[in-house]
Amino acid sequence: MANPVLVVMAAGMGSRYGGLKQIDPVGPNGQIIMHYSIYDAWKAGFRRVVFIIKEELLDAFRERIGNAAEKLMQVDYVFQSPDKLPEGFASIPLPGHFFDMVGFRTPADVVFLADCLSSREILDKYQIGFIYDVAGYLKTLEQVQAMTAKVFVPAHTEVTEDIADLAQYNVRKVQEIAERIVDLCAVPRGFEDILQQLFAAYGLTMSFEQYVLVGSTVRSYLAWLKDTGRLTALFEDGRMRWVRV
């Protein structure tokens, strides 16, 4: 292949990872995964790389990655923005899982669904997926369930012509977790107690990353259950506890 160009998609915000994995060091001298990838690409004959990133990440990305890559090859940046699409493409708002998430429908009637739903295998393994807005997420899943397209391309499962069953599986998992939280709150419980009970019930291993990701998701569930009238908050002895209505 003459003059191959390496294209690196690095616009994700690392919601499940808990930070910007693009610039986290992993090597003995502070190298990041992309340093190794770019070096391997250079050895394979690539002399130009195009990074697709969010514009707000440019300075940090250039400092940690771009400057090093420029020592080996030509570096260009393309900014990802759902507001600037080729003719015939349409963006699809997919709120709930993460901020400002969108999917895309192409002129060929292919729908890219980003991270808006998970495979059965991922849900069965991790149980509690990251959600920042439960109500918004359920609306997204209902929207996806009703969609038709020639092909659906989710980020974390196989390409399919029918996405409805998987969307419903994700809905049932959200409902299952919500019901478990409501049952736990048959007696007043604090957040830490609820979180510990959920980790035990689902066989999850506590770590700092899991505490942040699952913990923030559980807080989203608690807020949604309060808004929908299924839980209420009690304040006793300077502490807040959640209880079933």
Compute the gyration radius: what is it? Answer: 21 Å
Tell me the number of strands: 9
Spatial sequence of strands, sheet with the most strands: 4-5-6-7
Class computed from helices, strands and strand pairing: alpha/beta
- Helices and strands, in order, run as EHEHEEEEHHEHHHEE
Tally of DSSP helical segments: 7
| Helix proportion range | 25-40%
Estimate the mean pLDDT confidence.
90
Coarse shape: globular
Strand count, sense and closure of the main sheet?
4 strands, mixed
| Strand residue content | 15-25%
Ends distance = 66 Å
Poorly predicted tracts of residues: none
What this model shows, in words?
The protein has 245 residues and is of the alpha/beta class. Helices cover 39% and strands 19% of the residues. It contains seven helices and nine strands. The chain has helices spanning 33-43, 58-69, 120-126, 134-145, 164-184, 191-202, 208-227, and strands spanning 5-9, 48-53, 74-79, 90-93, 102-105, 110-114, 151-154, 231-236, 239-244. A four-stranded mixed beta sheet has the order 4-5-6-7, with no helix packed on it. Strands 1-2-3 form a three-stranded parallel beta sheet, covered by helices on one side. Strands 8-9 form a two-stranded antiparallel ribbon. Helix 4 (134-145) packs antiparallel against helix 5. The N and C termini lie far apart (66 Å).
